[in-house]
# Entry
Amino acid sequence: MHMERRDFDKDAATWDEVPGRIKMANNIANSIIDTIALNPNMKVLDFGCGTGTLALRLQPLVGSITAVDSSMGMLETLNQKIKSQNISNVTTKHLDIEQGDVLEGCYDLLVSSMTLHHVREPRLLIEQFHNIVSPHGYLCIADLDPDHGLFHGNSNEGVFHFGFDREAMRRMLKEIGFNNIEFCTAAEIVRFIPGGIRPFTIFLVTSQKSM
# Structure
């Protein structure tokens, strides 16, 4: 794995042109919608929002969404969507935890999709998540099951974890202070790898903050 971060700014303008990314985000959104009782009073934070595909799927079902990312390019693309679609309940925020920025506020639901494997210290980030989720609020994380470094191809640029073991994730969430922890397979992506093709699964873990 590479220890250098990936520059997502250079990919932002064409990010949504890959159909598989849109399909994956929609599948993850469907799993969240099926699992969490979303309502118009909910205050939501989407961490690692990218171009906002997930946030904009959830937006009609909740009160407000704060879309956070470390890439200004991704946020600019999302801001263009917000403006063109005249969306009033999604706001963007640039935040870089690797530069010492800290999550603030209080949210009924925090979602993060395909971001954790790009984070050097996932536990420290999830502890920040715990700090800003309201009592009995929800955390939803979608990410790769163990992929042996094959999902991102040869470069693995900015990839610090080759997927996550579900039971290890369950233990970590419980230790940090989340309960009602449930896993499902939210999406499956088939990719060409050396020697043939392979399916990769994306889990969704939902949990609730303990009092």
About this structure: The longest strand covers residues 178-193. The helical segments are 19-35, 53-58, 72-84, 122-132, 166-176. The chain has a mean pLDDT of 91.
